[in-house]
Design a protein that fits this description.
The chain is of the alpha/beta class. The protein has helices spanning 20-28, 35-47, 54-72, 89-98, 115-127, 145-159, 181-185, 189-204, 229-238, 256-259, 261-273, 287-300; strands at 5-10, 77-82, 103-108, 134-137, 172-177, 209-214, 243-247, 276-279.
Length: 301
């Protein structure tokens, strides 16, 4: 049956300093995360102003998607539900039901599938029970041409910040959030991240590229996906690279993992290694990304 709404699902983030610790408590609930790691992340938020923009950016994506659907069809209302902050997903589902929504198309704003980035969102929707709208999930979009082109546009904009004579030689380092190796083994996560990176590199005609991971947390005794982006930068410098472009292909909007882990920490690593550093923007509300969302919704409607 035809859908009567769209539900965008995202991670969420604190919007002011006093929300940081409650937000992190939500994120780590049920997980073994050392207290010192939590305090470290609090300091990261403090370094970027005590807030993170994913809520604002996700609503901007939603509003632009709704406007695009109104113009191109199907005209559907777009709702936003967050896993770890307001508006919480359960509250959004209840509001949708109160608005009379019965069948929604779900779009999880994580390009690559893993338990953390996909399954936990689906489980939370299922846990809402029969009173919530039925949610059907759109298809995979990690190599959708419009997503690939939006990321490629961001890489091109980053490259032009490097000295012109050195741009052609600058390697691209595509990053995604690290997850435990055991989790990755149960999902197509690594293959999908690599496919996205390869598609962008091919679109740009770049042959010197690699995938690295970032922002790991959890027990230091548990193996997580590697190489860490900082180790990758040091290795490139040791191999003789003069510059690098870091491309957060695993993220569709700016938040602390981009604004601190890349813009502050990875940039400092590059500087210490003697590397010129450029960071490609996330797609945020790039027009091609919004068009892509509209296309995957229309295809599933």
């Amino acid at each position: 049956m035809a859908a009567d709404a769209v539900l965008l699902l995202a991670f969420g983030g604190p919007t002011r300093p006093e929300e940081v610790r409650p937000f992190l408590a939500n994120v780590v609930r049920g997980r073994t995360v050392p207290p010192e790691r939590i305090e470290e992340v609090v300091r990261h938020y403090e370094a970027i102003g005590g807030r993170s923009p994913p809520n604002e950016l996700t609503f901007r994506q939603a509003h632009k998607l709704e406007a695009t659907l109104a113009a191109t069809g199907p005209a559907l209302r777009v709702y936003v539900g967050m896993r770890n902050w307001e508006p919480y997903l359960a509250d959004t589902l209840a509001r949708m039901a109160a608005d009379g929504v019965r069948r929604a198309l779900g779009v999880i704003l994580s390009p690559h599938a893993s338990e953390a980035s996909r399954e936990r969102y689906m489980e939370e929707v299922e846990a809402a029970g029969a009173r919530a709208p039925t949610v059907r999930w759109v298809g995979a979009w990690h190599t959708h041409p419009r997503f690939v082109t939006a990321v490629a546009d961001a890489v091109t904009a980053a490259l032009v910040t490097l000295p012109a004579v050195r741009r052609a030689a600058a390697p691209l380092v595509f990053t995604a959030h690290s997850v435990p190796v055991a989790m990755a083994a149960r999902a197509p996560y690594v293959a999908e991240v690599t496919a996205s990176a390869r598609a962008v590199a091919e679109r740009l005609g770049r042959t010197h590229w690699q995938v690295a991971y970032q922002s790991r947390s959890g027990s230091p005794r548990e193996p997580w996906l590697e190489p860490d982006v900082n180790d990758a930068l040091r290795a490139l410098a040791a191999e003789g690279a003069r510059d690098v472009v870091v491309v957060p292909v695993g993220f569709v909007c700016d938040h602390v993992e981009v604004l601190y882990d890349l813009d502050v920490a990875a940039r400092a690593t590059a500087r210490a290694a003697g590397l010129g550093f450029a960071r490609a923007s996330t797609v945020n509300d790039h027009p091609l990304f919004i068009q892509m969302l509209a296309e995957v919704v229309a295809a599933a409607a």
